[in-house]
């Protein structure tokens, strides 16, 4: 199985030497995304999902192709705003009310101190 890396995606910031998207055997891995324009946890959640959407689109996919999300939040105090904003975002991107699995991890910090939410995804085209 070959792996195709996408080292840049229009509209996404990089925070190190890595590719934001990789495609292998029909599975697409999206590196953790931040809401880089937001200051509040809610703005960061919405921005992170928007950036996941950009990464998915770069691979020719949409949110309907997501297999699983993994979310990292800084501190337990970030859980309620994350849950509240995710509920709003999910209502928009999953109008049928059926959502992919999501693992939520509480961490001490992320790559930059101002970030409190990071979201990564695994996806595969529905017809694969």
SSE topology:
Layout: E1 3-6, E2 21-24, E3 27-33, H1 41-58, E4 66-74, H2 79-93, E5 102-107, E6 117-123
Note down, in words, how this protein is organized.
With 128 residues, the protein is α+β, with helices and mostly antiparallel strands. Helix content is 26%, strand content 29%. The protein is built from two helices and six strands, in the order βββαβαββ. The protein has a six-stranded mixed β-sheet with strand order 1-2-3-6-4-5, covered by helices on one side. Helix 2 (79-93) links the parallel strand 4 (66-74) and strand 5. Helix 1 (41-58) packs across helix 2 (79-93). The longest helix is centred in the middle third of the chain and has 18 residues, at 41-58. It is globular, with a radius of gyration of 14 Å.
Briefly say what this structure is.
The protein has helices at 41-58, 79-93; strands spanning 3-6, 21-24, 27-33, 66-74, 102-107, 117-123. The chain has 128 residues and is an alpha+beta fold. The longest helix has 18 residues, at 41-58.
């Amino acid at each position: 199985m070959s792996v195709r890396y996408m080292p840049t995606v229009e509209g996404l910031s990089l925070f190190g030497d890595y590719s934001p998207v990789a495609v292998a055997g029909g599975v697409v891995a999206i590196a953790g995304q931040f809401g880089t324009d937001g200051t509040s946890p809610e703005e960061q959640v919405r921005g992170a999902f928007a950036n996941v959407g950009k990464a998915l689109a770069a691979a020719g996919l949409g949110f309907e192709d997501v297999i699983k999300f993994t979310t990292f939040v800084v501190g337990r105090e970030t859980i309620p705003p994350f849950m509240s904003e995710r509920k709003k975002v999910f209502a928009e991107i999953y109008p049928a009310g059926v959502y992919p699995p999501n693992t939520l991890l509480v961490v001490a910090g992320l790559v930059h101190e101002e970030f409190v939410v990071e979201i990564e995804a695994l996806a595969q085209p529905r017809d694969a």
